[in-house]
Specification:
There is one protein chain. The protein is of the alpha+beta class and 152 residues long. α3 packs across α4. The N terminus and C terminus are likely disordered.
Amino acid sequence: MMLPLPSCTFTPYAQSVQYVVAFDIETSGPSFSRNGILSIGASLQDRDSIECLSFQANLLLPEDREYDRGCFENFLKKNPQAHAFVQKEALPPARAMAHFCEFLDLVEAEYPETGFVSDNPSFDIAWLNIYLDLFAEKTHWIPQEWDVSGSF
């Protein structure tokens, strides 16, 4: 279950945006070549923070990827419920990304004036775009536009 977005001030970048996809990912570490995405969550909400659509998938770690020791010791080991959650019903990356593409297709078709926000956009968008490139038959690219001031 995704929580509603806090009240936000729309910056000039977002004046034409009627909807926002708030998304977050969890990874097994910071390295794009050694680690992988463990979980993706997204919530499409209108300006009143009413959720219109949501997406959540847990992903299996590809065989050539591993847990970063620091990530495992400092976060996952200390938060066993979070670690159990990201392992629950985990899908192969190609299947998870196909479902994510379906979500993005629906957002694009039904909600054309949509912006994307994240608590760490450069990290999350880069990871998602890499996984879309590696595992999706139909490549989508998440926009690289965000407001670095912390407001949207």
